[in-house]
Structure formats: C-alpha cells, structure tokens
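Troubleshooting: if your tokenizer reports a length mismatch, compare your output against this known-good record of 431 residues.
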Amino acid sequence: MIKNRAFQQLRVAVVGQGYVGLPLAVRAAEVGHQVVGFDVDAQRVKRLVRGESYVEDIPGSRLAPLLAAGAYRPTIDAFDCADFDVAIVTVPTPLRDGAPDLSHVEDAARMLGRHLRRGATVVLESTTYPGTTEEVFGPLLEHASGLSAGQDFHLGYSPERIDPGNSAWRLENTPKVISGIDPASQAAVHRFYSSLVETVVPVARCKEAELTKLLENTFRHVNIALANELAIFAHELDIDVWSAIDAASTKPFGFMRFTPGPGVGGHCLPIDPSYLSWRVQRTLGRNFRFVELANDVNNHMPDYVVRRLVDGLNKRRKSLNGSRILLLGLAYKANTGDARETPAARIAELLIGMGAEVQAADPHVSDDAHPRAAGLANLQRVEVTPECLAAADAVVLLADHDAFDYPLITALAPYILDCRRRLAGEHVDSL
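Known-good structure output:
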C-alpha cells in the first residue's frame, strides 16, 4: 500500500469493471482508497467476488488481498455506490449504425446522480466525442441529483490509456491526461489521479481532453491503414513490404514504425476515430476524409486475408471450399485475451461462408469471458497439436501469441499465411 503525507483516503466508485475499470479500481484500492467496483454484468461480478480476474493485467493474486481487506468490493447493487467522494465512469461506448451509442454513459450518469452529494467529484473516462462531458454527462448528473456541476460538485474528463498486455507501460507509469469544467474541478481531479499515477497532465478544458484520446487513436488508425494498403500494393508489385519497413525503421527521426495486419480490433481503432468523424459531420457538415479512408482500408483487411488465402491454396491446386483452415489467434493483438471487434471473427465468417472447414486456437481467449466477441462462439476450438497441424490444408496466423510453438507450426503445417511476419519458410506466405 502506497501512501504519502498528502494522501487522503477517499470512497471511490468505479462504474464498469472491464479492461479500463478493473485496473483502475484495483490500483485505487492498492494505494489506500476504499473502492466499490460496480458493473451490471452479474456473472462478471460473481467472478470478481471469488477473486477471479478476466483481465490479464490484473491477476487473481492482486485481487485476493484487496478483497480480504475489504478495500475493493465488486457489486451489481447501485446503492453500494452511495456516499462516494470520487466516481469514475469507464463504461463501453460502442457504435450503433455508425453513430455513437452513449446509453451506458447516460445510464451511469443517472445512477450516480441519485447518489451524488455536495463536494463529490465525478470523472468520465469512457472514450467519446468532444463535448460529451459538458453537454450530455454533466446535465444528466445535474438532473438526477438536483445539484449544479462546478457549483455543488466537481466534474471532469480523463481519457483512458490502458494498453492490454503491455507490461512496460501500466496505469501507474503512463502519463494521465486530466481536465475539469472549471479550476476547482480540475484541481479535484488532479488530486485524485495524483494518488494513482506518477505523472498527471492537466488540460485546460474537457473538450481538449476528449479530443486527445481521439487524436491518439486516429493517429494509429491512419498509419496502420497506410501500412496495410502498402502491404497490398507491395505484394502485387512483388516487393517485400516487411523488408522495407525494417529498413525505414532504422531512421532515427521522422519515421515511426507501423506494420500491416489482418485488420484492427479492440475499442480504440475500429470505433474511436468514428466518434470524431461523426462529430465533425454532425456539427460542421463535412467529412473527415482521413478517418473514412482509414476505416475503408482497415475494415477490408479481413477480405484481403481471405483473398490471399484463396490464392495460396490455388497455387497448391486446392480449393478453399472443403479445405480445413486453422486460425491461430482470435484476439486482436498478441498475448492478450481481448477479442473485442477482432478481425478474426470476420475472417472466420467469410471462410465458413465460402465452404471451408474452420478450426481455431487461442490460449488466451475464452468464449465466456468475451460474450461481445460476436462470431467466435460457434467456432470449433482446438489445441495446436502435431495431428491438428498436419491435418490442416492451411494455417493462418492472426495473432502472434508467444505461447504458440512456432518451430512446431513451421515444421508440420503444409501451408501458412502469416499475417504477423513471425514465421519463415518456402511454404510460408507473409501478408
């Protein structure tokens, strides 16, 4: 437990216990705050109460002592959030028919508003379009509580920067951008996060903090789309794009390495930039062309993977229809079980629709932990055994988990389409 002379124990409510909320709740409890972790998913809360974590960055060994000490209390009962000093909202913000769905944020605001008291602080962390905190979230808190933001309670926004599976950059050592609707709110938000993280970065207004998150993810989205489109054209021009990327990466200035892949996943890239595009279109009546182009390229990478697989099989005088295809890695990134918006789901759907027999292996992804990973639940799951590899007509590496036995895969798989450039050999095609 970390404390200092300026430390003040607070009653903290974290609404949403997913990839963002759970690490935040655990960190707050570890530094000495009394934390309630609220979630509407009863099964998720039951697992947490038993000390079982579904987030790789939070092992059960971190949960157990906090639960035993009563420092962290998972719950589905909104009344457990009463009398909070600080409330953090980390709920999902999906897209529905191309438009932001803020229903979870709105529900959280109404719930917290019923328990909001004078002097408390409420912070939104969910990714959203600029203006949400002051135009949507704050008014709902005011309506439910009868209090005024800035006058009776503090209100702010702080974009989450959780990177699942990243052991180098964790919550506590990643600079934390914070904002408030007025100086007093910003100071209250600053004090709270200073107890959790090493570096706090104040931003003058909530709109700029909201845009910060969208800027970070749009930057990645656009550059990954560039790498993906380069990979497509380089293959057609008989150029090794991976070799060119390696060479360009030796430049110590003016270049940042991005690599191709089978598509983008998680919440950040498939969804977040579209929040900004939607806001620009709705408010200014203009298109955010970079975002729309990046969406088009990245969204069609699963289709390109399937085309490359068809070509590879054809060269080996095999048809996709009736072939056994083994997909390795269902998560959207290596060494995590995060299958939100994973491109593997679309690839599997396309392959099955074209008559392939599809099997999948992923040591990290479990169906019960990721009910939102649509398209994966009905896949035939297998272990990566010598028999399974030898029986496959093609193996497609989608997420390059370190747990996979790559020498075994290379030795026994008859044909491999490697979407991550992890393997080499005459029978291996790189994306």
